[in-house]
Amino acid sequence: MSSTIKCVILDDEILAISYLKLLCEQIENVEVIKAFNDPKIFLSEINSIDCDLCILDIEMPGMTGLQVAELISDSKKIIFTTAYKEYAAEAFDLNVVDYVRKPIKKERLIQAFEKVKEINAHSQKKDFIEWNTNIGKTIIFTEQIAYIKTSEIDSRDKEITLKDNSTIVLKNLNFKSLLEMLPSKDFAQVNKKEIIAISAIKVFSTNEIITTLVSEGENFLKLQIGDTYKTHLLEIFGK
C-alpha cells in the first residue's frame, strides 16, 4: 500500500475548497485527487475514483455531509469539517476518522491525517493494536481481546475487556476504524455499541449471543444482535 494518502474534498464553498487544498499541499504524503462543491455530483463519481479518504463539509445546502457519509462510509474513510460543534456526537456515530472544526488549522489537519496513516498501517498488521488509551500509548495483542463496547462515559472511546477480565479504554476511536485493525475472521460487530471475539461466544441464536464472559450476578454476559449485523454473523457461522 502506498504511503501517500489520496483524498477527495467535498465542500459547497469554493473558497473553502481552495484553502483546504492549499493546506493539503503543504502536508507530506497527502495528495488531493479531486474536489467537488456539489454533493450529488460527488456521489455520482466517488465510486470510480481511486482514493483513501473523503474530506466532507457537514453544512451544505440540499444534502448535508452527514447524509453523504451514510452512503459512502462502508467504502471510504471520512474526515468531517464544520464550523458547528453541535454535530460532533452524530459525526462520531457515523464511524468517521476525525472531526475538524473550522477555521481549519494546518496542525489540526496533520493530526487527522496521522489517524488515517495509523489505521492504514494497522490494516496490514493485525496481530496487535497500538493506540492511545486511559493508561497512555499502549500495545494490545488482538488474541487477548474478548469483548469491546462503546464507553458509557464518552461514546468516542471504546472499552476493551481482555481474556483475563481486565479492561482498557481506547481513546477517540470509532468502530469502523477499530474493525479495520482487527482480524476479520476473529471478531464481529454485534450491534451499534458492541464487538465480540468469536472465541468468546458460548451460544449463538437468531437474536442473542451468550458469551463466555461473566457479568454482574455471575451470569454469562448476553448481547443482543442488531438487525444490521445478523447477516454477517450468520455468514461467520456458515448459516
TrEMBL record:
**Superkingdom, according to UniProt?**
Bacteria
Q: Which UniProt keywords apply?
A: DNA-binding, Phosphoprotein
Q: Where is the Response regulatory domain?
A: 6-117
Mind telling me which PROSITE patterns this protein's record contains? RESPONSE_REGULATORY
**SMART domains assigned to the protein according to its UniProt record, in alphabetical order:** LytTR, REC
Query: 4-aspartylphosphate is carried by which residues?
Result: 57
Checking InterPro entries in the record gives: CheY-like_superfamily, LytTR_DNA-bd_dom, Sig_transdc_resp-reg_receiver, WalR-like
Q: What is this protein called?
A: Response regulator transcription factor
Organism (species) = Chryseobacterium edaphi
